[in-house]
Amino acid sequence: MRLRVRPLVAPKRGSTPEEYEDARWPVRSGVHRSLRCAVADGATEASFSGLWARLLVEAFRHGRLDAALTALPALQEQWQAAVAGIPLPWYAEEKARLGAFSALLGVTVTGGRWDAVAVGDSCLFHIREGELLAAFPIERAEDLAAAPHLVSSLPRHNAALPAHLRTACGELRDGDVLYLATDAMAGWLLRRLADGACHNELAALRPAGFPAWLDAQRDAGTIRNDDTTLIRIDAVADTARL
């Protein structure tokens, strides 16, 4: 089995690519035999959340962040050192002292199996023959919280983190599709995948055209205006042409 990966990203309308505060791995399309992939959604209301999201994704990518998130103290020190090196006005310093926050979804795919860990409202979707097999960690659009529990760059904000950490696993077969999505896209998928009417639309999405597709959805009121990340993973038989 090979894994064909296609990341699709766009900042919120009115923002520049530099202001995009999601993070993801992989960052480019490609084909893999096994894969550690992740998306993280930095909270816009906090300072340097994009940096924190990138640190979380990089740690998961390299296998330093396990399902128990035991590497958090080292990542928190790295975030604090990076922020301390940035000259800031006093009011920005005050905000930075409150820390950064991010949702995190990490998925390992290998040997015909996926294993996932999540905190917050970024979601994994598993599709087989047009049927939704699993939505994790949220199963209904109405359960997407306005203020989900997030991973913080400051230890004092993570006391309740173990109670909000979720894990799941599943069998992956040739022809299956996985989606990793940050919250705005996850809400769209939760509403549309249940009726199975959007598979062709999703399969046709390409990185260059994703921002325009997303703006059309925003205009129609079907997706919130937010930084948006979607990773599609196709499980392809070794005998199939890519």
Kindly summarize this structure in a few lines:
Helix content is 26%, strand content 31%. A hairpin with a 2-residue loop joins β5 and β6.
Please give a structural write-up:
This protein has 242 residues and is an alpha+beta fold. The protein has one domain (2-236): Phosphatase 2c, domain 1 (4-Layer Sandwich), CATH 3.60.40.10. It is built from 7 helices and 12 strands. The strands form 2 sheets. The chain has a 6-stranded antiparallel β-sheet. β7 (123-128) and β8 (131-136) form a beta hairpin. α1 packs across α2 (72-84). The longest helix has 13 residues, at 49-61.
Strand order of the largest sheet: 3-1-12-11-7-8
Major sheet details: 6 strands, antiparallel
Task: Briefly note the structural class of the backbone.
Answer: alpha+beta
Q: List the secondary-structure elements in sequence, H or E.
A: EEEEHHHEEEEEHEEHHHE
Number of spatially distinct domains: 1
- What proportion of the residues is helical, as a percent range? 25-40%
Shape: globular
Distance between the termini: 12 Å
CATH class: Alpha Beta
Instruction: Note the beta-strand portion.
Output: 25-35%
Cα gyration radius (Å): 18 Å
Could you say what the CATH topology is called? Phosphatase 2c, domain 1
**Count of extended strands:** 12
Low-pLDDT sequence parts = none
CATH architecture: 4-Layer Sandwich
- How many H/I helices? 7
Mean pLDDT: 91
SSE blueprint and pairings:
Layout: E1 2-10, E2 22-25, E3 30-32, E4 35-42, H1 49-61, H2 72-84, H3 90-96, E5 101-110, E6 113-119, E7 123-128, E8 131-136, E9 151-152, H4 161-164, E10 166-171, E11 177-181, H5 183-192, H6 199-203, H7 210-220, E12 228-236
Antiparallel strand pairs: 1-3, 1-12, 2-4, 4-5, 5-6, 5-9, 6-10, 7-8, 7-11, 11-12
Helix pairs in contact: 1-2
